[in-house]
Amino acid sequence: MTNTASQQTDFVLLAKQIKQWARELGFQDVGITGIDLSEHEVYLKKWLANGFHGEMNYLADHGNKRSRPNELVPGTISIISVRMDYLPGDTQAVKVLQNSSQAYISRYALGRDYHKVIRKRLAKLANKITDSVGNFGYRAFADSAPVLEKAIAENAGLGWIGKNTLVLNSKAGSWFFLGELYTNLPLPTDPPQATKHCGSCQACLDICPTDAFVGPYQLDARKCISYLTIELKGSIPENLRSKIGNRVFGCDDCQLVCPWNKFAKPTQETDFLPRHTLDSSDLTTLFLWTEEQFLTYTEGSPIRRTGYVGWLRNLAVGLGNAPTTAKVIAALKSRLNFPNEMVQEHVSWALRQHEIKTEER
């Protein structure tokens, strides 16, 4: 990391300016912290040792770089942590969840891919800093590298890591993205919140459809619906399929019941607003998309991560949990010979569920 920032730079003033610039660029909150993540490193290693990361092997890669920022980006001494709210004003989330004929897509994925949006804003923030103090060393991240972003946000005072393992903010809930700017500037740091504010509440633990929480602050990703529908590339364990319901990409249950989310404010970012009616589409409509339609309607969307085959797999599970109708049965049968064994397996399972429902009538 190169740094030509003047020795005469008033870094206390610069920190204040950075926060002002960040808010002008569309970030709702910003904090600054150092690089000591030793406490979180202990937690990470224990979590990995328990195998809770499942097939997400990238979380175990890169040695200690994830928890030691100066090893990932040599020269890093300060980290600017930012928050950007993403929740649309009227998400209809609960309504969609209760309508088992509709597809529930995690609210963060309804609009454009947040990675690019946040990284571009962070680049603009870095340019403003450069204009003020000269060249300095930095790298921008938005859930895109071995970075402990939740730990950094907690240390920077943006909130606390709650029992559902998400960062919670007492004035904004948890419907937000995080981003980081690693820098070699000796910026003054902000204090973390003194205490966590979950208290005795465990609504998030109780609501989880698949019982993925092994305890407060402890998530077994292998049972988490977000993992099962996004990260898992193979077959979804059969014993968990009926519990997934109509959640075809991610899950928000633990956020929907969190009391702190009554303070969440609607996003002002048009990029995060729902596209292609993905916030209220029927399962059958999405299941019958061709691959070309899938690629067209998910262009620039986080949904691309699951791929077309994963998309059909997830929707087949949703259709297996949907009410038995001629439309649903016809849609499933149309994919019985889809040229992928995993999709065929999930479609066959879904049809069996309707046979069972019919027999039980």
From TrEMBL:
GO terms for molecular function: epoxyqueuosine reductase activity. This is Epoxyqueuosine reductase. Its cofactor is cob(II)alamin; [4Fe-4S] cluster. It is an enzyme of class 1 (oxidoreductase). Monomer. The lineage of its organism: Bacteria, Pseudomonadati, Pseudomonadota, Gammaproteobacteria, Oceanospirillales. Pathway: tRNA modification; tRNA-queuosine biosynthesis. The active site is at residue 143. [4Fe-4S] cluster 1 binds at residues 198, 201, 204, 258. The keyword Cytoplasm applies. The keyword Methyltransferase does not apply. TRNA binds at residue 233. Signal peptide: none annotated. It catalyses: epoxyqueuosine(34) in tRNA + AH2 = queuosine(34) in tRNA + A + H2O. It is found in: Cytoplasm. It comes from the Bacteria. Its main location: cytoplasm.
